[in-house]
Write a structure and sequence with these properties.
The chain is an alpha+beta fold. Helix content is 34%, strand content 22%. The protein contains nine helices and eleven strands. The strands form two sheets. It has an eight-stranded mixed β-sheet with strand order 1-5-6-11-10-9-8-7, sandwiched between helices. It has a three-stranded antiparallel β-sheet with strand order 2-4-3, with no helix packed on it. A hairpin with a 4-residue loop joins strand 3 and strand 4. Helix 1 runs antiparallel to helix 3 and helix 1 crosses helix 8.
Amino acid sequence: MKYKSALNLIETEVAIKFIKDTFERELAKVLGLTRVSAPLFVQPETGLNDNLNGYERAVRFDVLTLGKEVEIVQSLAKWKRMALAKYGFEPQTGLYTDMNAIRRDEVLDELHSVYVDQWDWEKIIRREDRKLSYLKKTVKSIYKALLKLSFAVNKKYPELTHDLPKEITFISTKELEEMYPDLPRKQREAEAAKKYGAIFLYKIGYPLSDGAPHDGRAADYDDWNLNGDIILWYDVLGIAMEISSMGIRVDEKSLVKQLKKRKELHKLDNPYCQDILNQRLPLTIGGGIGQSRLCMFFLNKAHIGEVQSSVWSDECIKQNAEKGIYLL
């Protein structure tokens, strides 16, 4: 049986805007955020670009007038923290912005595209908030916004239903390893997401029992003991869908500890790390929430290319068309 989208192309475009507008409003409300403008590119020597897992190559180009190269951002994890200080935000308030990026080394499939669009958000916290209970409280607030979005989408489009649980389940990477010791990491996520419907997988970065981390995380933005991913079970494809990576950011102690673990202490010399070491940047919590993935999930789409315009091979376009999946 061929896949058939519940909405046609024009209806899909209208629904994408509805989802983005609705969730953006709810996210700002539950977290106390203000929308700001953000850069598309930064100068690499500032240390503001996100190294992601450490192997992705940022897209670079030269600026004629400046006589130097800049990099398209891979995320705004570090820029947001600097912006909170620069703009004079107060504790328990924060910002969010639209982040657009190019990830040239992404392996393309139903969930992964060269083009990345997400809401990047960041909020100032107090030192006493740097604990797991505060992280969990924030995750619950974001999940509340997701549930409100689910209700709004179903009300406007009754043909689109979503079986999200009333509460999100918290599981550490160590607990997940103990639950499914013989499974590969991504399969562990899938089993847990299928069982609970929605999970927050936390403590990503430090090694597990086999000496490798559950997943890669840059050493200089999230505190690996206070971070995690929001993962939903996606029945359309029968997969676990990560829609957000977030966490409490490093302070001066965890920054040095994690860079030492990665043998990247040379990064302490860049301006961003120096500002953390000298406590010139506020303590924060923040993350990114995938816009296209969110639209894909709530519109029951089978491919991310149905909700965003990117580039795909001719073979990919042909194979999907044969399945009734038409990429933008």
